[in-house]
Amino acid sequence: VPAEAGQKISRETRSSAKEERKDGVYRIQKVDTQVSDGFRVYVESVADGEEFSANVQEVMSSLSHREVIKEAEWSKVPVELQVNAKVNKGKVVEATILTANKYELPEEDTE
Fold first, then answer.
1. What does the alpha-carbon distance between residue 104 and residue 45 come to, in Å, rounded to a whole number?
2. What residues contact 60, with CB distance under 8 A and at least 6 apart?
3. pLDDT tens digits for 37-63?
4. Please, which pLDDT band fits residue 2 given cuts at 50, 70 and 90?
5. Mean pLDDT of the chain
6. Which residues contact 59 (CB under 8 A, 6 or more apart)?
7. Cα dist. 88→18, 66, 79, 80, 85 in Å?
């Protein structure tokens, strides 16, 4: 590494992740059950296509929330999630799903 580049890298301060709510409608891409304290869900935002993984803590989630997530994955339908996220440089680096509810598609006016 050239000296000038090394100095620049060492001078830049490390940016810390900021807490942010990421509530919205998501599609469940896949579920990873190999996590020791719950499971991890890979989601994609219906609104903007943002993708990230989120933890679902076994002790924090009710059976109904887990059923909603399972149904959304198996049926390939969107789900409404409340998510606490840590965002760094515009990218979600850590997330936890707080609640999951069935998403009702808006009625279209035929008039």
1. 16
2. 38, 96, 98
3. 778 999 999 999 999 999 987 655 578
4. confident
5. 85
6. 37, 38
7. 6, 28, 25, 23, 10
